[in-house]
Structures are given as structure tokens and as C-alpha cells.
């Protein structure tokens, strides 16, 4: 009997040491609070322990509970590595203030003429004051830039040849394939490996919107989805997941709200202008804001191809459920999205979403990055967006000396 007691004591001691080692090694990652929702910092996906659901609709109430149980100090401490160090993954170009060497610029003024039809918004046209005293004229008008330093093409092919004294040829392709024309001097894409990077995170991708955001979240219908380009693979994924979650599907694909533009019937406060016929994009953010989650599925799963589908959801105050680029975390704030690819099944993902929806503290933590100013790499994602493209392109043109660049 004495021997049995000693063995039991020894086993207990060894088990205790094992738990301590696992905890300090980071293998066991406990949530910030006593919430039943596990931390997804390392995407540790476990079966939720039984707890009493706490359904909520008031976003401010959820924030108040999170503040009292967690708070920004604890959230910052958990993600302090992101505050001190930027990502070294290479997914984003270095466009910070200290990265540009002013002595590399060969011109103090650059003009860019945008050629042909393009989706680039007209209000990007402007005269910009850039770093190192460089001024940058970006325009679609030959009246303002009759002798441009560069021509920008987006849907049309640049001239096949460039002679000495001709404008530099710039070609932009932000689609997943990011295929060069073969005739450009400067290539713009969403990828950091190309000459100039332009992410989809900028505000210029969604002009003329009603930015009214609802402080009240739907408690019965959890997920918003809208798509009018019904790609088979994306449609199939959306159909399977949305069959497991209460959702509203707007747009042409899998529509379950009785037709197009029904968002304005559900949420009349989202009408931007009663005098104008509604357009699908002018009430997008407002409609999204009524839902706790927005399903964001990329057309193509390609590295670094993180599009407006995700950033629209972030800007609307919803939590994106994302399927797309494997390196998406290089572009978004910490603990800001639910990465669907990290779950073993759609059923497991749906269970997690429902659990978060019924836990105000866990849900509020997905908004902590914004409320606490913990942006991580998202700061660089915004800095490399379309919003800053004119100055960054003009810097690249100035380094090459514009029209005076050697003929290719």
C-alpha cells in the first residue's frame, strides 16, 4: 500500500511538470478571458466546452463587457511583438518614410497620364505633394499633361517600342494572374515582387458609399454574403457553409432575400440618396454593418491576392469569414478575421461562428485591433494601397529619370 501511494505521488508530480512545460512552450494557448471561445492566435481549434450562450445585438454592450474582462492593455501585451516588429515575410513592399533615399530621385516633378478605359477612379486625379519635395501630377486629361513623363495603361497594351525622349510605359494588372504586357518599363500589381505594389486595402476602392454603420447586430441572421459573379467553386463553398449558418445572401448568386437591392428594404437607413436610383455598391458597407459576420471568398486562391472582399467587411465593422490567400495574415490586423482554411471542416467552422456570435466578449475581441490601435502589418497594407499609388509611382518614375530614361 505504501508503494502505491509513492507511485501515485510521483505520477502526479510528473504530470504537473509536463503541464508547466507545455504552458511555457506555448503549446497550450489559453484565451484571454474565461470565455468558452478559444483563442485563434495560433488557430488552435478545439471542441468548445459547454457554457451558457449569451446572445447579444448591442455592439457597444459587447465592447463594454470586453473592456471590463480583458481590456486594451492585455490585448496589446498579447500582440506586443506586432507592435515592435514588422513582418519579414516579404508580402509587402517597404514604403515607410525612412525607406526612400531622396538622393535617388532625379526629378522634382513627375506627370502621369492615364490612358484608355480603366476602372481607376476619377477622383484619384490630383496634384500630389510627395516625399523629398517631389510633386506628382496624376491625370486622365491630356490638357493637363500634354508632355507626360509616363503613360499608365491598365486595360490596353502599352506601345511596343519606346524611343529616347518618349514617356515611360507603365502597365498595371491587379488581377490574380498579374500578367505583364511585355512592353512596360514599370509594372504595378498586388504582389510585392513586382516594381510597384498596390494592395486592395485603400479607401479609393469604395467611393460614393453610405458609411452609416449600425451599432446593432442581427442576432438571428448571422452572416452577410453578396455575389453576382457565380463562379462554380466559390458558389459551391458558399452554399455548403451558408446551409449551416443563418444568413442573408444578396446579389445574383444564391439569393435568398427575394431579389436584388432588397438590402434597402431591410435597412432603409442605408439609402444614400432618395432622389437617385440605388446602385449595389452605394449601400454595401451600411448593409454589411448589420451583420456580425461577412463571408468573403476570393475568386482565386493565390498568394498575396487579398482583395476588397475582405477589406469591405473590415471597414463595415463586421468580422470577415475568409477563404483565399494562404498568407492573408501578412495583410490584416491581428485577431481580425476568421480564416476558414484553418478549420478541419465547414461544420467545425460553423460551430465556431455560432459560438462567437453568442459570446459578446469573444466577438468584441475581433474588434480590439481597431479600438486598441494594434494594427500589426495592416499599417503597411494600407500604406501600399491604391490611395498612395500616385506618389509611389512618381517616385519610381523619378528614379528612372522619366522621359530621359535610356530607351529600352
UniProtKB/TrEMBL annotation:
Keyword set, alphabetical order: Glycosyltransferase, Golgi apparatus, Membrane, Transferase, Transmembrane, Transmembrane helix
Protein localization: Golgi apparatus, Golgi stack membrane
Membrane-topology annotation of the record: Single-pass type II membrane protein
GO cellular component, one term: Golgi cisterna membrane
Keyword Transit peptide in annotation: no
A Pfam entry, by short name: Glyco_transf_10
Pathway(s) this gene product operates in, as recorded in its UniProt entry: Protein modification; protein glycosylation
UniProt EC number: 2.4.1.-
GO MF annotations in UniProt: alpha-(1->3)-fucosyltransferase activity
Primary residence: Golgi
Record PANTHER family: ALPHA- 1,3 -FUCOSYLTRANSFERASE, ALPHA-(1,3)-FUCOSYLTRANSFERASE 10
Family label: Belongs to the glycosyltransferase 10 family.
Name of the protein this chain belongs to: Fucosyltransferase
Organism listed in the record: Nicotiana tabacum (Common tobacco)
Amino acid at each position: 500500500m505504501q508503494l502505491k501511494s509513492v507511485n501515485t505521488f510521483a505520477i502526479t508530480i510528473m504530470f504537473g511538470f509536463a503541464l508547466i512545460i507545455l504552458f511555457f512552450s506555448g503549446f497550450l494557448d489559453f484565451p484571454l478571458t474565461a470565455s468558452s471561445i478559444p483563442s485563434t492566435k495560433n488557430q488552435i481549434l478545439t471542441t468548445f466546452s459547454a457554457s451558457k450562450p449569451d446572445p447579444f445585438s448591442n455592439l457597444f454592450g459587447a465592447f463594454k463587457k470586453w473592456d471590463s474582462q480583458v481590456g486594451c492593455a492585455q490585448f496589446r501585451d498579447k500582440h506586443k511583438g506586432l507592435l515592435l516588429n514588422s513582418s519579414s515575410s516579404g508580402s509587402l513592399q517597404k514604403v515607410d518614410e525612412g525607406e526612400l533615399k531622396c538622393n535617388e530621385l532625379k526629378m522634382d516633378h513627375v506627370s502621369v497620364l492615364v490612358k484608355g478605359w480603366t476602372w481607376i477612379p476619377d477622383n484619384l486625379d490630383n496634384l500630389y505633394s510627395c516625399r523629398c519635395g517631389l510633386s506628382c501630377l496624376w491625370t486622365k486629361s491630356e490638357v493637363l499633361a500634354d508632355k507626360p513623363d509616363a503613360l499608365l495603361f491598365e486595360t490596353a497594351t502599352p506601345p511596343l517600342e519606346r524611343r529616347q525622349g518618349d514617356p515611360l510605359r507603365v502597365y498595371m494588372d491587379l488581377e490574380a494572374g498579374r500578367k505583364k504586357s511585355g512592353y512596360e518599363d514599370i509594372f504595378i500589381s498586388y504582389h510585392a515582387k513586382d516594381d510597384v505594389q498596390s494592395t486592395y486595402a485603400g479607401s479609393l476602392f469604395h467611393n460614393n458609399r453610405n458609411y452609416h454603420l449600425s451599432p446593432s447586430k442581427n442576432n438571428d441572421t448571422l452572416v452577410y454574403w453578396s455575389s453576382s459573379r457565380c463562379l462554380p467553386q466559390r458558389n459551391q463553398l458558399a452554399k455548403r457553409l451558408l446551409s449551416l449558418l443563418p444568413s442573408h445572401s444578396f446579389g445574383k448568386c444564391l439569393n435568398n432575400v427575394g431579389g436584388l437591392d432588397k438590402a434597402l428594404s431591410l435597412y432603409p437607413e442605408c439609402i444614400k440618396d432618395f432622389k437617385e436610383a440605388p446602385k449595389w455598391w452605394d449601400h454595401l458597407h451600411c448593409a454589411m454593418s448589420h451583420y456580425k459576420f461577412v463571408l468573403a471568398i476570393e475568386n482565386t486562391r493565390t498568394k498575396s491576392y487579398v482583395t476588397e472582399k475582405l477589406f469591405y467587411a473590415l471597414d463595415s465593422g463586421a468580422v470577415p469569414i475568409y477563404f483565399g490567400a494562404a498568407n492573408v495574415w501578412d495583410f490584416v490586423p491581428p485577431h481580425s478575421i476568421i480564416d476558414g482554411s484553418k478549420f478541419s471542416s465547414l461544420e467545425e467552422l460553423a460551430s465556431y461562428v455560432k459560438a462567437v456570435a453568442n459570446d459578446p466578449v469573444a466577438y468584441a475581441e475581433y474588434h480590439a485591433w481597431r479600438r486598441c490601435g494594434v494594427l500589426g502589418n495592416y499599417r503597411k497594407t494600407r500604406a501600399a494601397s491604391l490611395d498612395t499609388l500616385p506618389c509611389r509611382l512618381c517616385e519610381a518614375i523619378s528614379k528612372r529619370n522619366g522621359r530621359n530614361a535610356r530607351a529600352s
